Amino acid sequence: MENTADSQPKTLLIVDDAPENITILKGVLGNLYRIRPAIHGRAALRAALVEPIPDLILLDVMMPEMDGYEVCRQLRADPRTREIPVIFVTGLSDDADEILGLELGAVDYITKPVRPAIVRARVKTQLALREAVQTIEAQNAWLREEREMIESIVLRMREADSFVMDRVRHLYHPVEQTSGDLLLSGMTPDGRRIVLLGDFTGHGLKAAIGGPLVYYIFQSLLARGESGASLFREINNQLHVRLPVDTFLAATLVEVDATRGSVMILNAAMPECYILRDGVLMRRIHSRFTPLGVTRMADPPVMEEPLRLISGDRICLHTDGIVEAAAPGGERFGGERLLAFLEEVTARGGALEDLLPLLRGFGAREVFEDDIALIEVTV
């Protein structure tokens, strides 16, 4: 029998209302496979559920009470048998009959009288294909388990116990559980607030893998009272050394020093951020730096000019998943629509979460194509 050293012979279910046809096929295949006969459709449906489940079914079409097409329909409707490959073996030779059989889910169609070499070759091919599919499914299941374990580890490593919510609001809607977006907020020992919004290239596990490193650097330097500029440089240099060359982080960092009445904003390849006062745009902060991790940064960066804001001013940061959300015709949501939303929200004290139904209505879809992240810092 066709077999491997560590497996049992494959089981074939042969269905035909003429016993002599079963005898012919058994003579062709019996020395290679274990044969299970059935002489009508209902017997075939029962035999398909007997252990070991058949590896392949050779099915006649013209049978009384229940023809082969109906047997095939019921096999495909049952989750216990839907994956068993079916080859029709029949005297019907019209193209329409063959097309119907294939549309019902059969993998092949053999016309009678059968030719032994052709039957053996086609059975062998379909069994090999099924075995390959089962191998791929098993490997995919193993990969899913591995991914879930890694995702769990990454998520636990990314949990930030220093996210200071006071005077910071945020909207976070990731495409996948492990997002490439980072939202960090904390206070230094001397009372400076530092907020970081980051967006790794891509999304999913590959994008999220650098998150734990950024979280660790952020919390460590925050506790030491380092400046936002030093923190910005350290994250850049560590990502440059430790991550692959095609993985980098677009980021915006905000440092609010209430004691000195100053604000510093560093934008590295992120969309422009907005400074609003009483619901009116006061200033846009554009990107001035390359994404973090691309090149080494020798000195801490500085702003071209310091920002002098007053109590109550709002600083709004966002990732490109918002402005690049597209309508069915391809039109982007864009920065001006976002700005109009932020002006209204900051003026009347609305919720950042109101942006989600607005985006869904614009794009006419429930699932976003990219991560959505928005932070509002009140001075």
From TrEMBL:
* E.C. designation(s): 3.5.1.44
- Ranges for the Response regulatory domain? 11-127
Task: Give the matching InterPro entries.
Answer: Bact_Sigma-Reg, CheY-like_superfamily, PPM-type-like_dom_sf, PPM-type_phosphatase-like_dom, Sig_transdc_resp-reg_receiver
* A Pfam family the protein falls into: SpoIIE
Q: Which GO terms describe its molecular function?
A: protein-glutamine glutaminase activity
Spell out which residues are annotated as carrying 4-aspartylphosphate.
D60
Q: Which domain of life is it from?
A: Bacteria
Name-wise, this protein is Protein-glutamate methylesterase/protein-glutamine glutaminase
**Gene that encodes the chain:** cheB_3
